[in-house]
Amino acid sequence: MGQESQDTDSVFDFLYVDHVRIAVLASQLDQHGHLESVKVTDEARETFKKTGSASALALKGELQSEKGTNEKAERSYNPLWLHARQFLDIFDELGFVQRDIKEAAYGDLVVVSGNLTVVDPRFMKPLWREIMSAVPGMQKAAAEGFAEGQSRQQRRAAAREGQKSAPPASTPAAAFAGVIAAFLEGMPHAVRGRLASNGDVLWFMLILERMSVTPEEIVLKHGTAVPGEWHVAGIVDAIPGEEPVAAPMGGDSLGDALGAATDALREQMGRPKTDYGITPLLIFRKLTSYGE
């Protein structure tokens, strides 16, 4: 992936870059693998020339001498961020990029533009029990949502587990609320993003180490909606209306109960079934050039 292939007509401001996945994909296009460093050596030679007349005792002619010096300068470059830009250019040229999300299939590399929203639920993690106890109707709603689709034996087992993990409660609803609170505390409170584009929504999770701006800065500056037009490049891994069917647990009542609870919690905390799911590789916006 040489530097000469870069299009300098535009410059990108990256909010998120998954260097690892980009390296894995890009390395498959080169027999030598992934380029990790670049060294450039500049060499300059300076020559000094001196000319004079021969002495009277010598033959007629001129005396000439030259002296030269060589200077070398070596510069090392880290192409990490250059790869992020070139990745899009090269994969687009090779025909791997799908720009219409409605035509995308599982495993397609898509680039979609739209309005970006970032949500950081990490501050909620230590508050679930207090919320379950304080909000009117929360215990009943949690119990009904958790118990839906479960057998009587499973509901009784969940109630016993809730009584162990939650403070003493006098009602089944409170016991179920304790179970839900325990599950919510144990769920990954990951930062997630959504991109709205022409009526379609892409849902994705964001790994903190791959963000160039902290979620705290986004939340305190903008709330959840980040202004401007944003572009997301990622791998499609979930399509609305095409939910996979879970394999039967074969009589494993605990597995069935956990599966039902996980599905219910995913609908509350995870990707809505109406959204596309992607694994993001790049999130960026274009800088405006005012030059001629």
Sequence-ordered SSE layout with sheet pairings:
Layout: E1 11-17, H1 19-27, E2 38-53, E3 62-77, H2 80-93, E4 97-98, E5 109-119, H3 128-134, H4 138-147, H5 152-165, H6 172-186, E6 191-197, E7 200-206, H7 215-222, E8 225-238, H8 253-269, E9 276-287
Please describe what this structure looks like.
It is a single chain. With 292 residues, the chain is of the alpha+beta class. Among the domains are: 85-121 and 190-240 and 275-287, Beta Barrel (OB fold (Dihydrolipoamide Acetyltransferase, E2P)); 123-186, no CATH class. It is 32% helix and 32% strand. It has helices at 19-27, 80-93, 128-134, 138-147, 152-165, 172-186, 215-222, 253-269, and strands at 11-17, 38-53, 62-77, 97-98, 109-119, 191-197, 200-206, 225-238, 276-287. The strands form two sheets. The protein has a five-stranded mixed β-barrel. Strands 2-3 form a two-stranded antiparallel ribbon. Strand 2 (38-53) and strand 3 form a beta hairpin. Helix 1 (19-27) crosses helix 2 (80-93), helix 4 (138-147) crosses helix 6 (172-186) and helix 5 (152-165) crosses helix 6. The radius of gyration is 31 Å and the shape is elongated. The two termini are 28 Å apart. Residues 1-7, 54-59 and 166-170 have low confidence and may be disordered.
